[in-house]
């Protein structure tokens, strides 16, 4: 039987590429989205991948959504916590609302996504937890005190989960994408974006598929001894 994979924020951007790559690798995939019904419907009709709408920042919604996915598709073997937002502002202008929105979605959202699937993974003695962090969690970023805090927090989550899950056959790893050609990066003012690209030795933005291939590897049986790690995929922009 095919393994089941859940990808949050899985109908657009990096998440879309991850959902498609996991499907191509033979997984039964469920993708979540937060608000864009039209994009989700187009994604399902193009790929045949089922989409589910819930807010990852809400624990009860996440838990109920995950129960629905498991009832309709099967127990979740691979969870990819990818959903994330930016609310960029220089710190002196950042509002408590911008802080909380990003913390609730990017950091608490990872807890809300992984916590409901964790007991089943422990019972079945297999699981793959993959969290999409960011280069900006590793190096910090002007105007991203909130976002960088969440993405650094993701690394603490996987290192802790790795230790708790190892004996139960569960691995937890993070991927830190650099700047990838998605709507999120395209929303950065063009002048700033050009200066960012100038700092990438590869001379280009990454492609969502380049992150998706890392996910497929971390989800596979081949990666069983890789646990608590971070894969940086950033075109040589930053080394830890
Ligand atoms: N480094 C240094 N200076 C920067 C900067 C950066 N990355 N980004 C902006 N600035 C500077 C601007 O040049 C400007 O300087 P001057 O006043 O001297 O012209 C100043 O900061 C902007 O000040 P403002 O008070 O006018 O700023 P604002 O309130 O209008 O906010 C901004 C503008 C939100 C900071 C905008 O410039 C921006 O979005 N910057 C990019 C932030 C960024 O890189 N975000 C990453 C998004 S992609 C992502 O997050 C995905 C991932 O994981 C990699």
What can you see in these coordinates?
By secondary structure, the chain is an alpha/beta fold. It has one domain (4-179, 208-226): NAD(P)-binding Rossmann-like Domain (Rossmann fold), CATH 3.40.50.720. It has helices at 13-24, 37-47, 59-72, 96-114, 118-124, 135-139, 145-165, 183-186, 190-198, 208-219, and strands at 4-7, 28-33, 50-53, 78-81, 127-132, 170-177, 230-233. Strands 3-2-1-4-5-6-7 form a 7-stranded parallel sheet, with helices on both faces. Helix 1 links the parallel strand 1 and strand 2 (28-33). The longest helix has 21 residues, at 145-165. It starts with a strand and ends in a 7-residue tail after the last strand.
Brief characterization of the structure:
With 240 residues, this protein is of the alpha/beta class. The protein contains ten helices and seven strands.
Please give the number of β-strands.
7
| Rg over alpha carbons | 17 Å
Percent strand: 15-25%
What is the CATH top level name?
Alpha Beta
Supply the helix-strand structural class.
alpha/beta
Question: What's the number of domains?
Answer: 1
Return the CATH architecture: 3-Layer(aba) Sandwich
The major sheet is characterized as: 7 strands, parallel
Distance between the termini: 39 Å
Poorly predicted ranges: none
Globular, elongated, flat, extended or rod-shaped: what is the shape?
Answer: globular
Let me know the average pLDDT. 97
């Amino acid at each position: 039987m095919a393994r089941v994979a859940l990808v949050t924020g899985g109908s657009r951007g990096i998440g879309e590429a991850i959902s498609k790559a996991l499907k191509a690798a033979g997984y039964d995939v469920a993708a979540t989205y937060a608000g864009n019904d039209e994009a989700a419907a187009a994604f399902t009709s193009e790929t045949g991948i089922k989409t589910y709408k819930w807010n990852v920042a809400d624990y009860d919604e996440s838990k109920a959504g995950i129960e629905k996915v498991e009832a309709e598709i099967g127990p979740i073997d691979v969870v990819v916590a990818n959903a994330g937002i930016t609310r960029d502002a220089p710190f002196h202008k950042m509002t408590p609302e911008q802080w909380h929105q990003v913390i609730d979605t990017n950091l608490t959202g990872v807890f809300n996504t992984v916590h409901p699937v964790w007991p089943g993974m422990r019972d079945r003695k297999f699981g793959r937890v993959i969290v999409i962090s960011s280069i900006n969690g590793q190096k910090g970023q002007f105007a991203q005190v909130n976002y960088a805090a969440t993405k650094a927090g993701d690394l603490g989550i996987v290192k802790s989960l790795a230790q708790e899950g190892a004996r139960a056959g569960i691995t937890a790893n993070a991927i830190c994408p650099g700047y990838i050609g998605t709507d999120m990066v395209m929303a950065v003012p063009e002048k700033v974006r050009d200066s960012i690209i100038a700092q990438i030795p590869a001379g280009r933005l990454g492609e969502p598929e380049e992150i998706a291939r890392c996910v497929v590897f971390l989800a596979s049986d081949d990666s069983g001894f890789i646990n608590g790690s971070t894969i940086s995929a950033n075109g040589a922009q930053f080394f830890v």
